[in-house]
Amino acid sequence: MAVAKVLKGFLVFLPLVVASALPERERAVPPEVAVRRAETQAPSLGLLWGKLRAFARERDGWRLFYQPSHGAWVVSVKVRDLHAPELPSLEAASWLAGPRLSAAAVRRFSGNEPLGLIEGWGRRDWWVEGRVMVGALLASTPPERGLSGADFWWALSLVVGFTLAGAAARRMRPQPRVSAPRRLLLGACALLVFAVPGASRLAWAMFAPGVRPFVSLMVFQGLATVVLGALATAAFAVPAFAEKARWWPVALGFSVGWLLGLSSAPPWAAAVAAVPSRWLLLVAGPVALGFLTDLAAAGWRLLASPFGRWSPLVAGLVGVAGLATGQWGLLGGAVMATALCPSAQGFWFAVALAAGFLPGAWWASVGWWGPLRDALGFSAAVWAVLGVWAFREARGHVGATIAG
Amino acid sequence: MRGSRVLVVVGLVLVAASGFLFHRLERRRWVGDQGGEAAPAVAAARALGFEPGPPASRVYEGPMGILWAWDLATRDSGTPLPPVMGVRFLGGGEVGLRGEVLVRFRRPLPTAPGRTVPATLLPDALVPFLQRAVPDAASFTLEQVASRVEAGVTWHRAILGRGGAPLPEGWRERLEVEVAGSTVISARRTLIPDPDPLGVVLARVAELGQGRWLVLFALGVGVLSLFLAVAESFWFRVRLPWFSALVLASTCALLGWGAGHGTSILLFWSGAALFSVLVVGGLAQAPERGAWLAAPAGVVLAAVSFLVPVIVRALGGWVPFGGPVLTEPWLGVAAEAGFRAVGEEPLLRGGIPWLVRPFLGSTAAYVLAAVAGALLHPVPAVPLPAGVMGEVVAQSGLGWVAARYGWSCAVQTRMVWELVRLGFVAPDFPWGRVWPLALLSGGGILLWRWRRS
After folding, report:
1. Residues of A with CB below 8 A from B221's CB?
2. Contact by Cβ (8 Å): B93, B106
3. Residue B242 and residue B275 in contact, taking contact as beta carbons nearer than 8 Å
4. CA atoms of B375 and B373, how far apart (whole Å)
5. pLDDT at residue A295, as a whole number
6. Which residues of A touch B199 (CB under 8 A)?
7. Is the CB of A172 inside 8 Å of chain B's CB atoms?
8. Do A93 and B235 touch (CB under 8 A)?
9. Edge-to-edge, what's the strand order for the sheet holding A89-92?
10. How distant, in Å, are the alpha carbons of A35, A68, A72 from that of A51?
11. Using CB atoms, which residue from B199, B221, B228 is nearest to A171?
């Protein structure tokens, strides 16, 4: 019994041990520094950039997105942490007037061989090696719009499929209704409503040339409303079934989440750390994500039921494969870890797992005080609550034993 | 008694709508009513001294951005720009006509292209051609001449340009004529739009396009919810109308394929029709009693969608008449109308209201679905909401039809509406025959119902 307690305690504090043992990584500078450097040091394009609309974190620096309020163009600048800002890229609406340069003029102007041209409504753009001639303006190649590659879509498709199967499972096999997860999810949705305006800083793909930024923001807020409305409806239509939470699955989930965040530290986590509403995302985001992860785990349990008593083994193998595939495979790994948890504690485990991820990732990759303070404060608060909870549970258990 | 009052009201509205559509008929003259004939193109080629072979293909070309930008730039004078009818001939050669004006001409190089014209004499040599092919040749001025010799034949390319009246402010037109020896081999008139109206139009289209993705995402969530409801019903052995749902989904896929949509769009709307019909036919059964209303209601809604641009223009804004110009053959236009009716209506007037009604109530559910439907086929407008508002009003009317007479009546009404509306601006559509047919059948049905009641 005592050995088990020591083991549990060790697992809970494992993140601290791992964090101290991991080699120091290069940490992200705050985006404000990148903005200052971009606006003072980046080469000029010969036109006004407009206002900073969004930013994205890449492996070695920040990419900043500017757009004027008329929306006719989007300028993005890559600011590496340790190097000078690159030549900005320019995406301009096809109707914007400009010259139609000949290949010879482009060759002379850019010093490179033209690779191809795009005949627009109002001008001609040329692709040259590593650069783009937008009318007569030489700019960097713009970043790819849209989400990541095949691994992202595979992970997303699988998780959405499991989530749908989980929703079907909960409709087909209704379980006793518990109000705590529902209230928690509704509260989280209400809090996330306030996080949406700040989170628009992350929605760089929404800001397209030719679209006024206020329209992009409205569409983003509409998307968020649909998602949050669907989540709130799901809280009633496919409610999470959870027994009263116990400290042990919560602690284990938080530790695993912390470790996953610490080890993977994806670049987007640093971008989340830079939005003004990061506290709301830190507190309310995990509840929504945990609900969906638990739903997907219920779907996995339904789909894997033909495996019988081998299904935990299969879930373990799939989870390890997901973790091994890298960044987006973590989604699958988290679903499988939740599926391995007893279903009555799965919701709490998943919420704790999601709650531990961001603090762990910030601890590993963020290089400015605000998010580090928040990560430390949040984690310390969670661990303190867990400690008190474990202590009370242990005393209650002892008391019950004595009384019994 | 109440039923006959409804009939009288619908009849009066129908009479008003038909009068309005008749008035608008004048507006459609720009299409040219060429009736699917290539004869004008053949005549134009012959007038230029080229005897073409039999027509091989005939296509209409927008592009929509130019047509709408022209409409916006000339909204006070009201002279819309027709799409170009391009005819290609067997054995080579091509003619493009915008209304009755030649905008494109190309012929094969003859074996004897004639004596070489010196570059300095080219303007004089072009005069006979310009007199026959370009009625307003006097407004063009020669800007550039380039010459080359290829396989012993001397080629000249003359570029002429014009601006100012009768073109709208800021617009220019370019005429490019290519001469081999002394024979005109090709000519092309190109409109160069003013970036201001073009930017307004294309930017509005891009903005509404983002709204369309938002609506498609929301509808996707709705379709997944309908799928769950169907799965649950299947699990608990509820009797569902599988046959009619599959027939409707297949019809939707077939119509979408005929209209030239991609696989993902076909799958989405066929799935939406399938699950919507399963839900509204199996779980929310309601008596269908309004098939008679489809033709008159469709004509009335078409009149509403033509009335909105008139009102908006009168208030100082701008909305294009009739929406996007479909340049497909008339069968493609009819397939598009059917695809919109069979694909969208079961979801917008059946599935989505069924999902949302418990939360928002019936009226709000239908209005919400109308907003979603309005954003699915965006047209540019100044100010931006004007284009959506008219569509919301018309689609709310469809919601009323669905609430009162059943969702299948809404499908039929939408079919008539889209046929009249899309056919109005489609150059290769026998609109002049379709809308009186819709009108007569609508009026006849009303009279028949009135006698019965």
Report:
1. 226, 230
2. yes
3. no
4. 5
5. 93
6. 72, 93, 95-96, 210
7. yes
8. no
9. A51-58, A61-67, A73-80, A89-92, A137-140, A131-134, A124-128, A114-119
10. 11, 6, 13
11. B228
**Candidates B193, B203, B213; nearest CB to A71:** B203
Amino acid letter, B36 = G
Whole-number Cα distances in Å, B323 to B309, B379, B418: 10, 6, 10
Residues 6+ apart with CB under 8 A from B260: B328, B332
CB nearest to A96's CB, from B195, B207, B359: B195
- The token pair at A288 is 């929504």
Handedness of CA A163, A165, A166, A167 (dihedral sign): positive
User: Does A69 touch chain B if contact means CB atoms closer than 8 Å?
Assistant: no
Residue keyed to tokens 């949040």:
A378
User: Please, how many CA atoms are within 13 Å of residue B215, restricted to the half-sphere of its CB?
Assistant: 22
Distance, in angstroms, between B384 CA and closest chain A CA? 10
What letter does residue B108 receive in the DSSP assignment?
Answer: P
CA dihedral of residues B319, B322, B326, B331 (deg, nearest 10): 170
Report how many Cβ contacts below 8 Å link chain A to chain B. 76
Burial of A126 (0-12, 13-18, 19+ CB in 10 A): buried
What are B238-248's pLDDT values in tens digits? 888 888 889 99
Cis amide bond preceding A306, omega within 30 = no
A267 shares contact with chain B (CB less than 8 Å): no
Cα dihedral: B337, B339, B344, B347 (round 10): 140
Q: What CA–CA distance (Å, rounded) separates A249 from A255?
A: 10
- From A394's Cα to the closest Cα of chain B, the distance in A is 43
**A121 closest CB neighbour out of B198, B211, B217:** B198
Please, are residues B422 and B323 in contact by the beta-carbon 8 Å criterion? yes
φ, ψ (nearest 5 deg) of residue B430: -75, 65
3-state secondary structure of B152: coil
Judge whether B199 is closer than 8 Å to chain A, CB to CB: yes
Q: Which of A122, A211, A222 has its CB closest to that of B214? A: A222
Q: Quote the mean pLDDT of chain A.
A: 86
CB contact under 8 A, A172 and B359: no
Question: How much of chain A, in percent, has pLDDT values that exceed 90?
Answer: 36
Element (DSSP H or E) covering residue B146: strand B141-150
In this predicted model, what pLDDT tens digit does every residue of B252-295 receive, in sequence order?
A: 999 999 888 889 999 999 999 999 999 887 666 565 666 677 77
How many angstroms away from the CA of B340 is the closest CA of chain A? Answer: 24
pLDDT tens-place string over residues B81-104: 888 888 888 888 899 888 888 889
